[in-house]
Amino acid sequence: MKRLEIKELSENFFEAIGKEWMLVTAGTKDGFNTMTASWGGIGWLWNKPVAFIFIRPERFTYEFVEKSDFLTLSFLGEENKKIHAVCGSKSGREVDKVKETGLKPLFTDQGNVLFEQARLSLECKKLYANTIKESCFLDKKLIEKWYGGAHGGFHKMYVAEIVNIWAN
C-alpha cells in the first residue's frame, strides 16, 4: 500500500461511509476484530484531520477499540459488499471473520491492522470518546428510531486523529 498525504485525499466520504461502508478494526497481530460501519465522518477538529465513528458497547469490536490507542477505517469498494455483509452481521466472538470473508490482514509499522483488499485505509489515533446520552438528544424521535429493544444501547463516539492514509 502507498502512503498518501492528507492534501492528496479527495474522497467523497458521504458516499464512501454512507453507501460503500467501511470496516472499523482495532487490535494487534495477536488478536483483532473488525466490524462494518456506515455511521461516521471525516473533518477537521483541534487543528487536526480527524475521523469520528460510533460503536455500540454490545459489539465485539468495541472491546478492541477500548483497549487500543489506535483504530483503522478501511474502505473496500462496492465490489466487496459481501465482506461487509459478514462483518456487519456476524460477531467475531463466534466467527473468524478473516477466514469467513477471505480478508487479508496487513500490519502497519505501528502494528495496526489494514486489509489488502482495501482501496483506502485511514490509520487513526484516538483523541476523545464519550457515550451518547439520552438527555442530550434535541430530537427525541431519534431515540425511539435508533435505540432500545432490538437496536441495542447508546453508541460510544470516538474522535480519532488520522495519522496515516494508505491507498492501493
From TrEMBL:
InterPro entries: Flavin_Rdtase-like_dom, Flavoredoxin, Split_barrel_FMN-bd
GO terms, molecular function: FMN binding; oxidoreductase activity, acting on the CH-NH group of donors, NAD or NADP as acceptor
Endpoints of the signal sequence: none
Domain called Flavin reductase like: residue spans: 20-167
Family from the record: Belongs to the flavoredoxin family.
Name listed for the protein in its UniProt record: Flavin reductase
Taxonomic lineage: Bacteria, Pseudomonadati, Bacteroidota, Bacteroidia, Bacteroidales
